[in-house]
Amino acid sequence: MNLKNTVSRRKFMGGLAMAAGYMGFRPESPLEAQVMPPAEAGAGGRQASTDEYDNWAKLCFNENPYGPPDSVIKAMNGAMKYANRYGNPDGGIVQAIATHHGVSPANVLLGAGSTEILDVVDETFLDGGKKVIGVKPTYGAVYEFARGVKSDSIQLDLLPDHRQDIPAMIKATQDHRGQVGFVYIVNPNNPTGCIVTKSEIKQLLDGIPENIPVLIDEAYHHYVESPDYETSIPYVLQGRPVVVARTFSKIVCLAGMRLGYAVAPTSLMDRMREHSVASINALVKWGGVAALKDTEAQARVKSMTLDLRKKTTTELASMGYDIVPSETNFFMVNIRRPVNTVTGEFRKRAVLVGRPFPPMTNYLRVSVGNADEMARFMAAFKEIVKTG
Question: 211 and 310 share a domain?
Fold first, then answer.
């Protein structure tokens, strides 16, 4: 039996655990708390009713509040005729992604959301107890998966302005070069919303041993306005050891459908495929193809989201609260007290906000919802935080 091409029992069980998180079981770890929908948040911890769920202002998971555009819904509805078939046509999703980025289909790997891609990278590059180097706080899936494969992580503090410390990351990688499986960057970072500039990415790649891969999670790429930012896809085209993770869960509005992908050189991709399950339903594959084409819908969502983010953060700043500058569809506000002392009060008002992100435990992360949701957030904020 070729174990490399066989899904291990541990990986299978890990997939079940993740699926449980997606379906709404109570979170028991930071990872599940980040990816799990809040459907368990009904009174007394029971499963919420549909009416309760629909009434919440869900500002806790950086989702898109507007729903898929008509083009995507039409494509997914059209794919329903394949619901009873295995091996159904997929709309050419891999080729569409490859064309979109100017790479070969051999450079593309699908995942059930980009979170599966992070799992695959851990499985691939953390063999033999190697470590991952990244920062804290950041999206913690990679660190959680690392523990699952009996590995460890070196988590570096952010700079005083909440940006990622690239010189410290280079030094840590050099100091532990024989132990490092890969370096992990979320760009823009979650939960802070800060970018790693294009010059800093180059500094990192040029400063670490050339055989160490770098995973760059670009889940919020589409919201960035800063001219100092660039996607790292060009490094893949150069053959550098870079894995770029992307998702359809944010600006494309398909968080509940689970579709993500990686773009990487074939030298890395061939190793990663051995650890991929990529069990993705027919509907979302067709929806993904349509979403890539509908750039007008993405531009519309970006405009509405950034306008509301700027309006909300400007009002909070005028009230005297410090905001971490964000290039994403969420922001962090320093409420000058532990976040866990106010989240319950927001929930009582049917407003769901982000959990604490140690060590930034006084910073409340708020996803940008629609205009009504943000108005409800501000009303609740003034009652709970400003007068508390």
Answer: no
